Amino acid sequence: MRHMEPTFDTVVMKFGGSSVADAEKIRNVARRLVAAKERGLRVVGTISAMGKTTDGLVALAREVSPAPDPREMDMLLSTGERISNALVAMAIHDLGHEAVSLTGSQAGIETDGAHTKAKIRHINPHRILASLDESKIVLVAGFQGVSAVTKDVTTLGRGGSDLSAVAIAASLGAACEIYSDVTGVFTSDPRIVPDARKIARISYEEMLEMSASGAKVLMLRSVELARNHGVRVHARSTFSDEPGTWIGEEGMEDAIISAVTYNTQEIVFTLTGIPDRPGAAATVFDMLAAEHVNVDTIIQNTVHAVAELSFSVPADDAPATRRGIERATEVLGAMTVDEDAGLAKVSLIGAGMRSHPGIAAKMFRTLADGGINLQMISTSPIKISCMIGREHMESAVRSLHAAFALEREPALEESARG
Ligand code: ADP
Ligand code: ASP
Ligand code: MG
């Protein structure tokens, strides 16, 4: 069935760091924005920092200070996007069009005060709208906003330009296009699985699980916001015109399994010697929540009235996790703390899992056949994740992709569900 695409008079076009890595690429992005304008659209560009600028700034801050002040970190990191947006505006001027670049604050992006992982609270798009009314292409620095309370510059978390773009699209009622160095969302990271296949349409639900389990092609929170506001996102290539992937209410494919993802950016903490009484786990996770730690997989075991608790957190949250554990110790007494940074999580995602038993068994069998030991397992209705040794990550991803034949278009009979 052909879906009727709604028509929009405004488009938000987001370009990632690799799309603006050098001067020629900046001119290319300017040409794409101008081409949209010449097709009659009102155009907002949201540009990430050039290449690996943000990584460089993070590394520089850590060279200067082992635990950089979060407010100053945001002052520093937000400069990357100011540079690239200003440069794109200049390149647009040279193509004979008017353009204006705005910081997140100038664009009216208001956030809470959680530096380096701020949440967007509200957008006042009047300045964007005024410039669009003047027929300008508006460039909004992605990844940043301003705290509604302190008026300090904030950043939205790594990959946050995707979130900026979706939020602006939602506030303008605009179409949202996310341009990057891949042609869309694939059945696995094409850098690891050369025969990964582009997915034409994927549901918010599946995309959320993919982003949550490591597929960085779209930032998790951008998918959440898109789902909450019904923004259909078109993820596509900066370097070609081919159609990309549509993320929306419905996936087109009735595949049982849609994708294999991986995450090598997590650390597993294990706490032993926790008293086995009601409230012990609550205390640990309260303290972690107070430090804004995003806990993923959790496993608890109890032997002889002493509990052992393992959980994974993003590597970036490790210092905050240590602080949280420290505070939990003050309440619960001393415990042994182990950290394992040598693991990777591989995940299998598919809405069809709900109605097809045996997927977990096939996944575990495939990994076992590759001699891969499973350290932790977690599931959701449409995802199974296994924590394994990091040295096995690539072979695990490739063998799972092959075992579930994800390189092939899903066969018609597979679509008969329930
Ligand atoms: P940008 O800098 O444009 O925001 P990212 O590097 O954040 O781009 O995201 C694009 C990258 O995501 C690709 O280069 C690809 O290696 C990686 N990736 C991981 N999983 C997937 C997937 N399932 N489909 C497409 N790309 C993926
Ligand atoms: N420049 C920021 C980062 O590298 C935001 C983004 O690229 O989306 O995380
Ligand atoms: Mg990104």
Quote the CATH topology of the largest domain.
Answer: Carbamate kinase
Number of strands: 20
Report strand %.
Answer: 25-35%
What number is the mean pLDDT?
A: 94
Largest β-sheet summary: 8 strands, mixed
User: Order of strands across the biggest sheet?
Assistant: 3-6-2-1-9-11-12-10
Characterization of the model:
- It is globular and about 75 Å long.
- The strands form four sheets. The protein has an eight-stranded mixed sheet with strand order 3-6-2-1-9-11-12-10, sandwiched between helices. A four-stranded mixed sheet has the order 5-4-7-8. Strands 13-18-20-19 form a four-stranded antiparallel sheet, sandwiched between helices.
- With 418 residues, the chain is α/β, with parallel strands linked by helices.
- Residues 413-418 have low confidence and may be disordered.
- It folds into two domains: 10-181, Carbamate kinase (3-Layer(aba) Sandwich), CATH 3.40.1160; 253-418, VC0802-like (2-Layer Sandwich), CATH 3.30.2130.10.
- A hairpin with a 7-residue loop joins strand 11 and strand 12.
- It is built from eleven helices and 20 strands.
- Helix 2 (53-64) runs antiparallel to helix 3, helix 5 (161-172) runs parallel beside helix 7 (220-229) and helix 6 packs antiparallel against helix 7 (220-229).
- The longest helix has 25 residues, at 70-94.
- The structure holds adenosine-5'-diphosphate, aspartic acid and magnesium ion.
- Magnesium ion (MG) is lined by residues 16, 159, 162, 216.
